[in-house]
Write a structure and sequence with these properties.
Elements: H1 3-32, H2 34-51, H3 54-60, E1 61-71, E2 74-78, H4 80-93, H5 95-99, E3 102-112, E4 115-124, E5 127-139, E6 142-151
Parallel strand pairs: 1-6
Antiparallel strand pairs: 1-2, 3-4, 4-5, 5-6
Helix pairs in contact: 2-3
Length: 155
């Protein structure tokens, strides 16, 4: 065989392999967001916005979770227990809103190693309820939400 032909063949094989590696890498990055979405949907959407079942919520939120609430130019740290109490009050104050179907749209999932951030828009019925920024860490037992900030749209 001609050396030129062998070199050309090797270069083609190398380029095809490199292209396939890049495709697999991109697929892995896309797939890596799925476990984060799963935790958020189960613990936050179904747990917090749905049943408020403490077991469901606690499965996805770390025990040291804090929601940071901007109020009167100060930051209020709210743990899961306090948050669940606040939700009960919000449900009593506005049952129509809290009985509406909750939907959501993930805007961003960014994962770097064992850290992740997710941005999602949450709707109750036709009302844009909030834009949430969730911070997550991956622990031995999986991904956990460790903090949250949010924006309430001016409807």
């Amino acid at each position: 065989m001609d050396n030129h032909f062998v070199y050309t063949l090797l270069i083609i094989v190398f380029c095809v392999s490199l292209t396939n590696c890049r495709k697999e890498n991109k697929n892995m990055q896309i797939e890596s967001g799925e476990p984060i979405k799963k935790v958020i949907v189960e613990a936050y959407i179904n747990g917090i916005h749905g049943t408020q079942d403490e077991n469901i919520v606690r499965n996805g939120f770390h025990k040291d979770f804090n929601m940071l609430v901007l109020q009167d130019n100060n930051i209020d740290k709210v743990n899961v227990d306090e948050w669940l109490k606040r939700i009960q009050k919000m449900k009593m104050d506005n049952p129509e809103l809290w009985n509406a179907k909750t939907t959501y749209k993930f805007v961003l999932i960014d994962v770097t190693g064992s850290s992740a951030v997710a941005k999602l828009d949450v709707y109750k019925g036709q009302t844009h309820f909030s834009t949430d920024y969730m911070l997550l860490y991956k622990f031995e037992d999986g991904w956990k939400i460790v903090s949250k900030i949010f924006n309430i749209p001016q409807n």
